[in-house]
Amino acid sequence: MASETLLLPGDPAPYSVLNPGGRAPLVIICDHAGRAIPQVLGDLGLPPAVRDQHIAWDIGIARTAATLARELDAPAVLAGYSRLVIDCNRRLDDPTSIAQESDRIPIPGNRGLDPAQRAARADEIFRPYHGAVAATLDAKLAAGQVPVLLSLHSFTPVMNGFRRPWHFGVLWNRDPRLPVPLMAALAQLPDVCVGDNEPYSGRDEHGYSVVAHGEVRRLAHALIEIRQDLISDDDGVALWAGKLLQVLPAVLADSALHRLRE
């Protein structure tokens, strides 16, 4: 069934590319950078306070990505729409791709969608974003670089009553080339707690982006989670992006990261 028209004049673009001419052999992606909702969907039946929460986007991660892209001279591809419209880090056949409930909060605007409505969200938001990620990686490869893929997310400080101790989490699965030295370097920083596949696991393959763009292409890759309360304002972004910048240049300098995995 054909999709309906979703995005109208005046709606934001489905993605943005920061520093597209960045020369580093690195591509940064943010699946949950934005919290826009298409005009035709209204507010999805949610009050503003809910649309500002973590269920709608990864708080602080867009500014963190912008800092890293600038300082590392790398392109960054940022998704523009709320994960509540469609989650760019889920397969389209995943039940949570268009969530009817998130963190026990019902999403009225996602109930009872027909195939054309679901297809519109995939065709006008999900596919353009992932097309931009693929094009950015292709451009690096065409220029003779084998890039590293770094996916950035943020996580809540408390979940189900448990106060999460980690400042950073590094999620990974089959390819240790980037995550293992990255975790070791972060752990050497004073007063930094690093989670190995915490607070989520990269081994359950629930996420889509690093699998589709990293594993499938055999590129070195990792997903970094940063605790949201640490990067909720400009000072926090500067501090915690700064900690990543203390370790990433040396880690990324390893030539083994810039070969396709055998």
Automatic annotation (TrEMBL):
Keyword terms, alphabetized: Hydrolase
Signal peptide: none
Highest taxon listed in the record's lineage: Bacteria
Pfam families: FGase
Tagged with keyword Ion transport: no
Keyword Thylakoid included in the entry's annotation: no
Gene3D superfamilies tied to this protein: Zn-dependent exopeptidases
SUPFAM superfamilies named among the record's database cross-references: Zn-dependent exopeptidases
InterPro entries for this protein: N-FG_amidohydro, UCP029730
Alphabetized GO MF terms: hydrolase activity
Name of protein: Putative N-formylglutamate amidohydrolase
Organism: Dongia mobilis
